[in-house]
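Observation: inputs received (chain + nickel (II) ion).
Thought: call the complex predictor directly.
Action: predict_structure
Action Input:
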Amino acid sequence: MVDLKLIQEFVKSRMGADHSGHDVAHIQRVANLCAHLLAAHPEADHIIVLAAAWTHDILDDKLVDDIEPVRQRLLVTYTAAGLTEEQVGTITEIITHMSFSKNLKHHYQLSIEGQIVQDADRLDALGAIGIGRAFYYGAHTGAPMFDPQIEPRTDLTKKDYRQKSPVINHFYEKLFKLGDLMNTPEAKQLAEQRIQVMQNFVTEFKAEWEFKS
Ligand code: ADP
Ligand code: NI
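Observation:
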């Protein structure tokens, strides 16, 4: 028996005070989206998916300065929760390779479990929540909301990706592209609905920006 609660408690203790959009509420939504996607993929291992979902952001270099001690504690927690060495290896591989920026240069072929967690994480960057998170992130880094003089960048490299860009540009540089990058058809369908919400928002945003009586 695997005790997922132990992993959840560890993540909650680490992420409680985050103000960059990687709070526990994000993790909980990702886990809920995973449960939705798992219903359509009975071949995927639930425990691997949920353990990876709960821990997918914990070693992000945006969130921790010194990753090594956190990695050690994470490995101890996985083992204490009852995961085997092989399961820990599978989960670690997922959380190491699933991020958007890591896939900019080389596409990494994830297992079905990894594909589900990646889809769920990307879905939480879309729709109304995605809009909220993008502005929240922009405020955190000091990026402007919008600047009509600055064109969205194309063909982003990992270095570009880390550079500050107006929040609305991030919609074009990353978020609108996520629909085509979804792994599972169920996530793709949800992504299309959520991207439509964002496109309507951007249209209205630009109309209000340019409003003159
Ligand atoms: P995750 O690993 O959870 O997908 P990221 O670190 O890529 O998260 O981003 C966290 C949130 O901040 C996402 O909703 C993402 O769209 C948003 N975000 C990331 N980079 C930017 C940016 N340059 N401008 C605006 N929002 C951003
Ligand atoms: Ni995430």
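Thought: report the result.
Final Answer: The chain has a mean pLDDT of 93. The domain at 4-209 is CATH 1.10.3210.50 (Hypothetical protein af1432).
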